Amino acid sequence: MSSVVECKICKRRCRLVNGEHGDCRVRVNLDGKLFSLVYGKPCAVHVDPIEKKPLFHVLPQTNAFSIATAGCNVHCKFCQNWQISQRSAQETRNYDLPPKRVVEEALRSSCKSIAYTYSDPVIFYEYMLDTSKLAHEKDLLNLMITAAFIEEEPLLELCPHIDAANVDLKGITEDYYRDMCSAELAPVLNAIKVLKREGVWVELTNLVVPTWNDSQKDIRELCKWIFNETGPDTPLHFSKFWPQHQLKNLPPTPVNTLNTAWEIARKEGLHFVYVGNVPGHAGNNTYCPKDGKVLIRRIGYNILENNIINGQCKFCQTPIPGIWT
Amino acid sequence: MKFQDNLFCIVIFLACLIVGGVITENMHIALTPPSIKKSFDVQKIKSEIEGAGLIPHDALHWKTVDH
Q1: CB-based contacts of A298: which residues, under 8 Å, 6+ apart?
Q2: ipTM score of the complex?
Q3: Is A28 in CB contact (< 8 Å) with chain B?
C-alpha cells in the first residue's frame, strides 16, 4: 500500500492517500509522493500596470508580467478570480510556460517585474520559487500577490527571492476568516510579520464587504494591528467590493463606508492609506506624511504627477519608504 | 421451557447479535484512520492528469505519514 503524504505548505496540512488531491486541487499524492500539477502551467498570463496589484510604492508606472495557475488554498465567497481559483488544473486551459520562458517573455514585454498573482501563488509554490530565482538573474523584481495562508518554513525559504508582496488582510477576526474564506487568520498575521522581518516590501489590501467586515470597530482593530505589528509606513489599500461568486446578493461597498475606513486608518496613525476601485477619490494619491503635499497623483492606474525624487519628498526631503528604482 | 420462554430467549439472542454487530462496526470506524477509508482509482487519476496535458512535478515541503 502506498504511503499517505502530508503537505506542509499551509496550515491545512492535507493528508492525502494515493491518488488524492489536496484542498487546493493542484497538489496530488501519486504512489506515495507529493506532486504539483501546475508547475510551468499557468492558466492566466497578462501584462498589468504594477498599480493594479495594487503596489503603489514599487516602481511606479511600470508593467508587471503577471501569471497564475488554477487552484487556491482559500475559498473566499467574494473571489473575483473564482473561475480559476476554485478549479483544478484539469478543468482550466493552461499554457506551457516553464520558468525560463516566463522570464524571457517578461523581458520581451519590457516588464520590470514578474507578479505571481490572481489565484494564489502559495499553491504554485515550486513554480514561483524557481521562476523568482531566474528573474533575479535578469534584474527583474518578484512580486507576490497573496492571501498569505502559508506556513512559516516554506515562506522563509521563499523570502530571499521575493522583493515585494501585496497581502490580502481580509479581516481581523478568526470568525471572518472561517466563515468567509474557510481559512484561519493567525497564520496570515504571522506571514505578514515574517515578510516584514525578512525585508520584503509589504503592502496590505482589505476588501471591505458590506455587513461582513465593514464595521468601524473591525476597521479600527485592523488598523491598530497594522500600526502596532508592522509600523505606520505599511501602505494599506481599502478596496471596494463588487458582487461576485457567492455574494451576488450583497450591494457594492458604499463610497461613504470607504471614506470612513480611510479616515479611521489615518487617525490610527497609518501614513499611506489608499482607496481602490473608486477613480478620482483623494485616496488614490500618495501624500507626504510630514508636510501633507501630494507626492504621487493618480487617476486609475495612471500617474499624473510624481514628486518623489531619489526616494524623498521633493518639497521637504522626507524619505518615503518603497522601492522607487 | 414454554414456547414463549424459548421465543423470548431467541429474541434476546438475536438482539444481542445485532447490537454486538453495530458496536463492532462503530469501533472499527472510530479506530480506522480517516485516510485509509478513502481510496482512488490511481490509474484513472494519472490518465486524467496526462490527458489534461499536465506533468506532475516534485513538490517541496511535505512528508510521509505512517499509518
Answers
A1: A51, A56, A284, A285, A286, A304
A2: 0.93
A3: yes
